[in-house]
Protein: CSF2R factor
Organism: Irena cyanogastra
Amino acid sequence: AGMNGTAIENFACIIFNVSFMNCTWHVGETATEDTQYFLYWRPSEKEDVTECQNYIKDNCGRHTGCRFQNVTIANKNAYFLVNGSRSGQNIQSYEKKILLYQIEKLTPPLNVTVSCTEASHRCSIWWQPPLTSHVKKSSCFKYEIVIENK
């Protein structure tokens, strides 16, 4: 239902700093200034659907994203729905399932320590795994070290 071209476009979400999530989108190509969008999500099948509480707005006051706090990553699909209206008419809705662990941007490794000995021309590097809410084994991480001579 709803007029063609009114559904949102380019929906994307990212989780950062362990428990924060931002979802953003572009307004539909035929959306007018009085079009308003509303985001609903369900973190897992066992949880209730809730509406965004902290919208990101464009210059016209239209919702173009949402900020979430205290997001817990489960190895299950989260469900997203964006619908809305303009001048009392429904617009096309948009639905998407996302595996939350796939959109997490990890923090850098923590407590990086470097120890070099001039006599042996060797360096040792230690670090702790990045913070994450869902990876329990540090062996799940792979690291790349780039060494530059300056």
User: Anything to note?
Assistant: The radius of gyration is 21 Å. The domain at 9-102 is CATH 2.60.40.10 (Immunoglobulin-like).
